[in-house]
Here is the input.
Amino acid sequence: PTPEVYGAPRLGEELCADDALTSRRAVREDEKCASGAGGAFECGHGQVAGQEGSAVQKGKVLARFTLRGGEHAGKVRDLVCPFDGSVHAITAKEGTAVTSDVVACQIGSCLHEESFMNICSNCGADLEEASAAGSVPVGEAGSSGGQTHVGMFGSVAHPSLRSTGDSLRRTQMERLNKLLASKKLVLVLDLDHTLLHTTLPRSEAQHQGLARIESGVEDVYVLSVNAMTYYTKLRPHVRAFLTAMAEKFELYVYTAGVRAYAESIAKLLDYSGRWFNGRIVSRDDYADVPAEHKKLDKIFPFDEHWATALILDDNSDTWDHPHDARNPRENLIQVAKYNFWPRDLGETHNPVSDGSSPTPPSSAPPEEDAEPGAEDARTAEFDAKVRRLLEADVMDGELQQLQCLLTK
Here is the structure.
C-alpha cells in the first residue's frame, strides 16, 4: 500500500487527553521529554526514531512535541504509530519547529530490506511464501532495482543474510561514520604465510617430531579443527604488531580457509576478542567467489569507500581482479611469505592452492631401527634442524617493519 503520511501537530492536536496520557505511560519515566519548540523523535526506548527502514509497531511513540500558542501552549503531545509497518522516511528532525502542514514521517508496509534464511528481519514474514502468494513484492523495494546482496552481520558479509542495496548502503555509511569518528581505518589481514604458518602431520613420525618442537619452542600451538590436528607457528612479533595496529585500525581476518579454522586461529591470536570482535571472513562466507580469489566487497559492498581499507597478504594474485570496476589489489601491501615448517614435517595448510580439504594423515607404523644407535643419530639430526629453523625465524622482522610503516 502507499505509505501513509502523518503531520505531527495535526495528529497530535486531535488526540484527546486520555489518549495522550495512555501514550505517555508506554514510555519509561526516566526517559527525557523534549521541551523545546518542535518535535523530538524518540521511540519507546529513548532512541531517536530516525532510521529509515526500521520496523515499527502499532502504539509505538514516533514523535513527541510541545504545542505553542493557544490554550494548549506548553503541553506535550505524542505521535503514536497507528499500525505495524516500516518507517519509509523521517522528514522532521529533532529540535526543528513544525507547523500543522509539515509532514513528520511516512509509514507503510515493511520493505523487507533485510532477511535471514528468507525470513524478514523486521516483520518476521516468510518471504518465499509471501512471494509465492503475491502478497509481498520481495526485493522490489528501494532504489536497488530489486537486486539483493549478501547481507552484513556486524561488519562482515554472511551468506545466510540478504539485503537490498538501500539497506547495505545505510549500514556501510553508519560503519564509515563510526570509523571516521574514532579516527581509524580498516586493516584486512590474511592468515597463512602472513601472520603464521600452519602444517598438518601426514604420519605418526611427523606428528611425534612436531610434538617435540611444540613442547620446546615458543609460539607453537596445536589446534584441533574438524577432527584434524594442526601445528601452528606464529610469526615473530605478531602480538606486538596486532596490539599496535588495533589502536589505529579496525582489524579484520580474511582467509581462504574454512570458518572453523579461521575462528580457531582468531581465538589463538586474540583470545580476549578485543582485536577482531567477530570480524572474520572465511571461504564459507563467499560461496559466490572461487576459493583462490578474495574480494573487498565482502567488507565494503560499495567500492566508493574502499580508500579507507588496507590489505596485508603474502599472495597478491588472490586480490587481483583487473576486470572489476575497481581492483582491490590497489589496496594491497604485499607481505614477505612466512615459512617455518620444513616440508618433511607435514603438509602446509594452504587453502588457496586448490581449495580442497586436507585428507587425514596415514596410520603407517613407524620405521624400526636398522641398527643400534640409529635412533640417537636421528635425534641429533632432528635437533640440529630445529636449531636452524629457530635461527632463521629470529631474523624475520617483517611485522616490525610493517608496524613502523603503518604507524607512520
